[in-house]
Write a structure and sequence with these properties.
Layout lengths: L5 H6 L4 E4 L11 E5 L2 E4 L1 H20 L4 E4 L3 H14 L2 E3 L11 H19 L8 H18 L11 E5 L5 H10 L3 E5 L10 E4 L5 H44 L23 H4 L8 H7 L1
Helix pairs in contact: 2-7, 3-7, 4-5
Length: 293
C-alpha cells in the first residue's frame, strides 16, 4: 500500500518552496525548477524521502521506543497535537524548553511538579488555601501544562524526533544531534538538510502540507503498533499449540497402550477391583438370601 500519492502532495501544496532569494544552496539537489521567482520542490525525491522516514519510524516503534512530535509555529501547533494524540505519542507544540533532551532529569522534576499541582486541585488541597495562593498555583500549573503537557507521561528521551521547520526548532535539532537521537524533519528550500537523518523536502508553512506530513508519521506509528500486536498474538498462538502437543503426548493412558499377548505376564495384569475381593468377607450367606427372596 502506497504511503502517499503524488496527487495528495500536489493538492496540499507540498511542492511550493520559498522565494529564490531566500533559498539555502544546500537544498539545490531537492529543487526541481523555478517559477515566478519561487522554487519548486522535486516531489519524486519527496516521495522517496517520505518512504524512508516512514520505515525509520516503524523500526523505532517496533523496537519499543517512542516518537516526539515537535512543531511550535502557529501553522503546526494544532496538527502536531492532534496527530500525536491520535497515535499515542508525545509532542511539543508551544515552546521548546532548552534541555528537554540533554537535561531531561531537570525536565522530569517539572513534570512531577505538574502532576502534583493537578493532584492538589483534585484531592481538595486548594480548599485550605487562600485565593491568592490558589491563583498563583493555578497560574503555575497552566504554564507547565502549556509547555510540558504533551510530554507529561514521557519517562525517558524518545527514540526519534519528527520536526516541522528545522530553522525554528534549531535548539531541538542541536540537542537531538548531541545525544544521538535520529531526526525526521520537513525541510523547506530555506533550510539546511545537513545533519538531518531523514530530511523530507517540502513546504513547511502551509497548514495542509504540515497536516499531511504529520498524518503520515502518525500512520507509521499506528501501523507499527498493530504489527507488534499481531506478533504478540502469533507468539501466544504458537505457545498454545506447543503446549497442546506436549500435553497430548504425555496424556496417553496406561490402558490405552498396545499389549503384546505373547509377552504378556500376570505381573503386567491390572489389579482386581476391591469390590471383587470383598465378596468373601460378606457377613450374609448370598445363596440363602437369594433363596429366601
Amino acid at each position: 500500500m502506497a504511503v502517499v500519492t503524488m496527487k495528495s502532495l500536489l493538492e496540499s501544496g507540498v511542492h511550493f518552496g520559498h522565494q529564490v532569494k531566500r533559498w539555502d544552496p544546500r537544498m539545490k539537489k531537492y529543487i526541481f525548477a523555478e517559477r515566478n521567482g519561487i522554487h519548486i520542490i522535486d516531489l519524486q525525491k519527496t516521495i522517496q524521502a517520505i518512504k524512508d522516514a516512514y520505515d525509520a519510524v516503524r523500526k523505532v516503534i517496533s523496537s519499543g521506543k517512542t516518537v516526539l512530535f515537535v512543531g511550535t509555529k502557529k501553522q503546526a501547533q494544532q496538527a502536531i497535537q492532534k496527530e500525536a494524540e491520535r497515535c499515542g505519542m508525545y509532542y511539543v507544540n508551544n515552546r521548546w524548553l532548552g534541555g528537554m533532551l540533554t537535561n531531561f532529569i531537570t525536565i522530569k522534576k517539572s513534570l512531577l511538579r505538574l502532576k502534583k499541582l493537578e493532584k492538589m486541585e483534585i484531592d481538595g488541597t486548594f480548599e485550605n488555601l487562600t485565593k491568592k495562593e490558589i491563583a498563583a498555583l493555578g497560574k503555575e500549573r497552566t504554564k507547565l501544562q502549556k509547555n510540558l503537557g504533551g510530554i507529561k507521561e514521557m519517562k525517558e528521551p524518545p527514540g526519534i524526533l519528527f520536526i516541522i521547520d528545522t530553522r525554528m526548532e534549531a535548539i531541538a535539532v542541536a540537542e537531538a544531534q548531541r545525544i544521538g537521537i535520529p531526526i525526521v524533519a520537513v525541510v523547506d528550500t530555506n533550510c539546511n538538510p545537513e545533519g538531518i537523518d531523514y530530511p523530507i523536502p517540502g513546504n513547511d508553512d502551509a497548514i495542509r502540507a504540515i497536516t499531511l506530513f504529520t498524518q503520515i508519521i502518525a500512520n507509521a506509528v499506528i501501523e507499527a503498533d498493530n504489527e507488534v500486536g499481531l506478533k504478540i498474538i502469533e507468539n501466544l498462538e504458537n505457545e498454545d499449540e506447543e503446549t497442546e502437543e506436549i500435553l497430548s503426548d504425555a496424556s496417553v493412558k496406561e490402558e490405552d497402550r498396545e499389549i503384546d499377548i505373547h509377552t504378556y505376564t500376570e505381573d503386567h495384569a491390572p489389579a482386581k477391583q476391591e469390590a471383587e475381593t470383598e465378596d468373601d468377607d460378606l457377613p450374609v450367606d448370598i445363596d440363602k438370601a437369594y433363596g429366601e427372596e
